[in-house]
Amino acid sequence: MPTMRVLQLSAEIFPLLKTGGLADIAGALPAALGAAGCDVRVLLPGFPAIIAGLHDAVPIGQFTMPWGHPVQVLAGNLPAVPDAARQPIHAYVLHAPDLFERPGSPYEDAQRRPYADNHRRFAALGWAAAHLAHGLDATWAPQLVHGHDWHAALALACLRHWPDGRVKRVPCVYTVHNLAYQGLFDARLFGDLGLPAAAYQVDGLEFHGQISFMKAGLFYADKITTVSPTYAREIQTPEQGFGLDGLLRARHGDLSGILNAVDAAVWNPALDPHITKHFDADHLAGKAGCKAALQQECGLKIDKGAPLFTVVSRLTEQKGLNLVLAGIDEILRGGGQLLVLGSGEHALEQAFTEAAHRHDGQVAVRLGYDELFAHRIFSGSDVTLVPSRFEPCGLTQIYGLLYGSLPLVRAVGGLADTVVDADLATLADHTATGIVFASFTEADYRHAVRRALALYRQPRAWARVRQTGMRQDFSWTQAATHYTTIYQALMDP
Ligand code: ADP
Q1: Which residues of 363-380 are buried (b: 16+ CB within 10 A; e: fewer)?
Q2: How far is the CA of 20 from the centre of ligand 1 (A)?
Q3: Residues near ligand 1 with C-beta < 6 Å?
Q4: What pLDDT is recorded for position 493?
Q5: Whose CA is nearest to atom 9 of ligand 1?
Q6: Is 15 exposed, middle or buried (0-12, 13-18, 19+ CB in 10 A)?
Q7: Which residue of 73, 261, 366, 422 is 20 to 30 Å from 90, comparing CA positions?
Q8: What does pTM read for this prediction?
């Protein structure tokens, strides 16, 4: 198979800039696709953290945005994650300080309001991809463009509507990491995007009288993927389609669900440099040390017999954290402890903080985003709570599995695809890996917590479920093969 030149386009990339799972995937995919025979480069917005992390940067060209500003594209290398075999990632970065060099969140101001010019910021990214596909870098042009989430979606419209009349058919793949975030903008801003009027219609990026970047991705992509098979089915229904289910049903022949994988150079309890003691599925002694250190670090009572339930999450409605709040007494009644690391909605932050004050030594909360603390949490945790209302894939339940912390999840999206509920049959045939509950109700969640507590009181069964979870294969090989099969089919139609 000849090497394919693929441009990956995303707003975030681990380890430089991460607000959620998108960054983990964007960071791991280049190496995984490289191993599968692709020549991958990434294109990113020039956020401060990305500019700061770009090595050997050289300008390779510039172009003018529709509103008249010139922007420059840099080429350089991103640091590879620590892995002796890993090559640095070749990156293009859109260097536009007036658009991207702002402190704090990449998408919102200090009051958590989306920036008023987000349409311009991510249109600029889209045009940069289109220019690269049309020879901005004389030494390398992609044969295929792969965009991730709405920030990257306008690239697909820019490629289809490339203005010089010599439209080059560069095949495009678009991956939905979360359909809830759509990039909707007032129709009056359409003139800023630099697209012809023909793009603003139902067969294009018009969505109920607004501009939808997400719809641009879904409409113009040659192939659409999302991050789990179950989510690929769910987004075709009115309940989870966010108004785009009709388009997704119409395109179901081009839509597939590819389960996210995990970068073993980053998430592996046998090698993880950020945890107190190492362990693996056959040598679990170190996990007790991690748990004691975690309890001490968070002001929880140091008690190896108390099942430690943990949450590492954005604090948003999606993640089912109201269930966690409502069920705190259930955990405590069963002798358990709760630790939450998260940031997001003020009301949730406040409610968890109050719960920690009320239950000193049994409930602990750390507000904020802390990558290394997250590693220590998974290493010391007994149960990883992910009771989401919806969940495209979810990574924390997978980190829980790999770190010997049983996931307690709702049967939705990628959670349903990654965790096997411990019932009599799955306990008997040793396929159980966690606790799964069906409906998004307090009663069902509480029952799941009670089941987790009961299982914890059966140490042999618990140990077996934990070991089965730790042995699951979430490596990138299968996912990378799936993506490259899609790429290949587009290259030789
Ligand atoms: P989403 O992308 O919807 O936020 P995922 O489970 O796919 O959910 O990915 C979340 C990623 O962000 C995981 O790597 C998780 O460990 C990390 N994460 C979420 N919140 C925090 C936090 N407060 N501190 C550190 N890491 C976090």
Answers
A1: bbbbbebeeebbbbbbbb
A2: 5
A3: 20-22, 24, 178, 312-314, 341-343, 369-371, 374, 393-396
A4: 65
A5: 21
A6: middle
A7: 261
A8: 0.96
Q: How far apart are CA 468 and CA 46, in angstroms?
A: 42
CB atoms inside a 10 Å sphere around CB 86 = 16
Q: Which atom, in ligand 1's list, is nearest to the CA of 24?
A: 14
Q: Which atom of ligand 1 is nearest to the CA of 378?
A: 16
- Separation of 342 CA from ligand 1 center, angstroms? 8
CA of residue 62 to ligand 1 center, whole Å:
35
pLDDT digits (tens, 9 = 90+) for 241-290: 999 999 999 999 999 999 999 999 899 999 999 999 999 999 999 999 99
**Domains observed in the chain:** 4-261+476-491 (3.40.50.2000), 285-470 (3.40.50.2000)
Task: Give the gyration radius of the chain's Cα atoms.
Answer: 23
HEC string for 87-153: CCEEEEEEECHHHHCCCCCCCECCCCCECCCHHHHHHHHHHHHHHHHCCCCCCCCCCEEEEEHHHHH
Closest CA to 176 of 150, 209, 143: 150
Measured from the Cα of 314, ligand 1's closest atom is: 20
pLDDT value for 166:
65
pLDDT digits (tens, 9 = 90+) for 122-164: 999 999 999 999 999 999 999 999 999 999 999 999 999 987 7
H or E stretch at 255? strand 255-257
Give pLDDT tens digits for 86-103: 788 999 999 999 999 998
The Cα 289–Cα 337 span in angstroms is: 17
Quote the CA–CA distance of 250 and 404 in Å, as a whole number: 41
